[in-house]
Amino acid sequence: MIGESEYITALFADQVYYEEAPLIDRKETCEWSQAWAKTEFIRDIISLANTARLRGKPAYLLLGINDKGNRCGIDSLMRHMNIAEGAENFAVSEAIKGEFQKRISAHIQPTLLHWDFYIVEIDNQRCGCLVIEPTTPSALYHVKKAMSAWKDGKDKSIYQGEAWIRSGESKVALDSISILTNDPEYQYSYSEVPYVLPSIWQRYFEQVQGEILRYWNRAEPPAEAAYQELHDSKGVTIQKAVEDFFREEDRHLLVLQGAAGSGKSLFLQRLVRSLAQEGAQDMDYARQLEQYRPPSGLIPILLPLRNLTRQSRTDSLHFAKQICNLLHVLWDNNERGGVPKSPQKLFENSHLQWLILLDGLDEVGKHEYRCEFLNVLLEFMSAYPRLHVILTSRPVISLEDLENARLVDIAPLDETQIEAFFTAQRTDRNDAEIHTFIQRCKDWQDAWKLLSVPAYLNAAITALDIPRDISDIREQVLESSEPNPDSRILTSPEIGNRLLPIIDSDDLTFEVESPVTQENVERLVNSVQEIVITLPRLLDRVYEAFWERERRRGRFSSIEELRFGTYRVATNLMADCSAHVEREKAKRYLKAKGLQWALEMGILDDNEFNHIFFATPSTQVYSATKKLECDIEGGFEVSIRQYVRRWRETYRTEIESFFEDLTGSSLSIHLETQGGSNG
Fold first, then answer.
1. Whole-number Å distance between alpha carbons of 204 and 200
2. How is the chain split into domains, by residue range?
3. From residue 333, how far is each of 222, 352, 385 by CA, in Å?
4. DSSP for 491-512?
């Protein structure tokens, strides 16, 4: 009983947090000589033992105190047991314990081993406390041997097989309720399935929110005002498709299919965060009302499939275990320690509404791996038919015939959404200027395709220097007055010596002493607009911002190696526009994880034949151009001759055009300088 005395004294003072109340029962008197008193005692002990078994915490039966907290002591109990009033506490304790042991052994099974009885003196008044330690027998405690009893004309008998537990909707409605020994809600002990209280549910929901916010701090999603709702090809919002899915009784799998960067991941993250916010508020309200109920809404579990283990990909039991690992907060603070043996049985609880969100089927790997995992997923859902699952994927595998699934295709952003996105980012709402920019972009099919993808649209806003008002122009003019205004290139220590295109210095010649005039402002406006007037420059700004964002996210420590790996695929493996290569060849330059990331980000694409190709022809040409810039700057003549020699004329012509636009010089001049080996 070491360390328990202060806690037990507090129990007698009614200092009990409401979530612990089911573990505590009080009896004012106990007329032990009466049969009904003995049957009530057996019922109380079974109730508390099952509650301790369920929750993994000790249960307490307080004797000599009523439900209102008024103490009367155990003198009456001692008289009924023929214990002398002047006996020492130890003798009293042993005598009472002996009487209790007879009834517990005779009428309760499984055998209740870990319990004890103590005398507690409070204000010179002798009270008693029976403590039941949590144990984990395979079956609920129940009546072993029946016993007949009546009180005031009411049947107080107990019958073989009966079981009870301390439960109720709230603290004020607690009681010992009758349960079946195979009741799925109560049949598992804390060591097998965690019993989750409102405070723990609230902690889980708060953790989920925190994980989303930490990811957003790295990934920099668009501002709330700029977020554009995703739609399907018919104009129905994806949010409504999800809501309709939850109302369907015959389908529990929703597949959201969309191109790389189409906003699938962000949509899931926003959905998870919203559900977690609602869940946390719901549980906070339950705690205020001192209720014991589970969450009334959906409980989200988000698993990015890039984190799927090989065992989980091939075995549904391992997959269930990986899903359950995401719920560890539900049992981390268990006083008894250890991971429950079967936490997945929570998925069978009819009072819990689970939503599992699996992000990125395309990130599982090869085509055969994806098919393999789909079979595992269907097997998992068959084992737990109450679950709802949302799966996202790029259109890399046929999903139309997936069993009991609803397939929704995410459409690219339309002109209205793109314009709304840019407008939301601005302070002066210069819609006409933005609209002009959009119209020019629509002239380039590949650029428009790029901007219709949320991931690149979000990158574009940080890259496109569209002036807002005169104050913004002044800031840009002053920034342009820093030292080295004549430099045409910037050297990045992270990238090495390579060209980073900026606005032509001839267009930005403002001496430090020069005043900021309206003429200078107009010249800067024109120069800023000119930087995005061509397709190569637009792509350069968007991709530079994209790569910088990925560097800050820190997912890859060698992001620049990955960047140049994509450039090398365009120069060393591609001989013409819209070419493709085998997956294994692409992995030589990007490695497996890098290739998967490039596919996920929409730089590269693939098909069911494991062919790898660039998302757009312009992206391929741009990547090859950037590789040329770097090699020319670094003086790698031999390298340039090797890959230029393999290019077809049409491919080389496109690259030469991009190169001249971005650098202001002719590629032919550089190649002729290197010995005329032009391929």
1. 6
2. 5-179, 198-409, 415-538, 555-673
3. 36, 21, 29
4. -BTTTBS-----S-GGGG---T
Mean pLDDT by 10 residues, the chain (679 residues): 65 78 86 89 96 93 83 88 89 93 96 93 88 93 96 94 90 85 86 92 97 83 77 93 91 91 91 97 95 95 94 96 95 78 93 96 87 95 96 86 87 85 67 70 81 80 51 40 36 30 29 41 46 77 82 76 93 89 91 86 84 92 94 82 87 93 86 51
> Between the CA of residue 368 and those of 8, 331, 394, 602, 613, what are the distances in Å?
61, 36, 15, 21, 19
Strand order in the sheet with 298-304: 298-304, 353-359, 388-393, 253-257, 405-409
SS3 165: strand
φ and ψ of 389, to 5 deg: -130, 135
Sign of the torsion angle spanned by Cα atoms 190, 191, 192, 197 = positive
Q: Report which of 256, 257, 260, 221 is spatially closest to residue 603, judged by C-alpha positions.
A: 260
3-state secondary structure of 489: coil
613 φ/ψ angles, rounded to the nearest 5 degrees: -150, 165
- In sign, the C-alpha dihedral spanning 315, 343, 270, 548 is negative
The residue behind tokens 């399935």 is 193
Residue 435 dihedral angles phi and psi, to the nearest 5°: -60, -40
> Do 118 and 1 meet the contact criterion of CB atoms below 8 Å apart?
yes
SS3 state at 8? helix
The single-letter code of the amino acid at 642 is Q
Residue 114 — φ and ψ, nearest 5°? -95, 80
d(Cα 245, Cα 165) in Å, to the nearest integer? 37
> Whole-angstrom Cα distance, residue 20 to residue 197?
10
In whole angstroms, how far apart are CA 73 and each of 61, 106, 119, 619? Answer: 14, 27, 10, 85
Domain 5-179 architecture:
2-Layer Sandwich (3.30)
Measured CA to CA, the distance from residue 455 to residue 190 in angstroms comes to 44
Contact 51, 131 (CB under 8 A): no
The whole-angstrom separation of Cα 46 and Cα 299 is 32
CA 587 to chain centre: 29
Residue 264 in contact with residue 392, Cβ under 8 Å? yes
Using alpha carbons, list the distances in angstroms from residue 611 to 400, 572, 590, 598: 22, 16, 15, 14
User: Residue 337, by phi and psi: left (phi above 0), alpha (psi -120 to 50) or beta?
Assistant: left
Enumerate the β-bridge partners of residue 232: 410
Residue type, 577: C
Alpha helix (H) residue ranges in 197-237: 198-219
| Region of residue 207 (left: phi > 0; alpha: psi -120 to 50; beta: else) | alpha
C-alpha separations of 16 from 129, 330, 417, 448, 567 in Å:
15, 22, 55, 64, 66
Residue 147 CB-half CA count within 13 A: 21
The two three-digit tokens of residue 670, written as one number: 């550089």
Angle between helices 415-425 and 454-463 (to 10 degrees): 40
CATH 3.40.50 holds for 198-409:
yes
Phi, psi of 456 (to 5 degrees): -85, -30
